[in-house]
Each structure stands twice: as C-alpha cells, then as structure tokens.
Amino acid sequence: TRITQSGIAFGELGSTRKMCPDMEVADRFLSALGQTAAYTCDGSRLILLDATGAELLAFIPTDSE
After folding, report:
1. I need a labelling partner for 11 at 20 to 30 A (CA). Which of 22, 30, 38, 39 fits?
2. In what order do the strands lie in the sheet with 45-49?
3. How far is Cα 1 from Cα 18, in angstroms, rounded to an integer?
4. Of 1, 7, 9, residue with least CA distance to 43
5. Reported confidence tier of residue 63, pLDDT bands at 50, 70, 90
6. What pLDDT digit, counting tens, does each position of 7-27 carry?
7. pTM across the whole model
8. Between β-strands 38-42 and 55-59, what pairing exists: parallel, antiparallel or unpaired?
C-alpha cells in the first residue's frame, strides 16, 4: 500500500563543518528537504517527493525494534 500525503514541512535546519566535513553532501540533503512537497510510505520506507511527485529522498529503518 502506498499512500501519498501533501503538506509536509520542516523547521529551521542547518549543519556545521565540524560535524559535516563534506559539506557537499549536507548541502544536497538540505536542498532536497527544501524541495519536499509531499511524502509517501511504501512498506517501511518513508519517501519524500518534490512537487512533480519525483522521489527526492528515501528513508529505511535501521533497527528491528
């Protein structure tokens, strides 16, 4: 089952060079979050989508709890 929802929003986000030595990755991640217009859940994956429905980021659980 795949249900798409719109209206997701993120508050102020940031990163620091101390914690993110490769700022290119952090910048790309923050850019993708800024483009997020909707989300969907596909099984245990959370997928963030842009305004056209294209997948920006996908998150999977890393533990079995």
Report:
1. 22
2. 2-6, 38-42, 45-49, 55-59
3. 41
4. 1
5. confident
6. 677 777 766 666 666 778 888
7. 0.71
8. unpaired
Structure tokens of 57?
Answer: 């980021």
Task: Specify the DSSP class assigned to residue 34.
Answer: H
Q: Which two tokens stand for residue 9?
A: 């929003």
Q: Is 22 helix (H, G, I), strand (E, B) or coil?
A: coil
The distance of Cα 15 from the centroid of its chain, to the nearest Å, equals: 15
Predicted pLDDT of residue 54:
94
8 token code pair: 């997701």
Share of the chain above pLDDT 70, in %: 72
Q: For residue 2, give the 3-state DSSP assignment.
A: strand
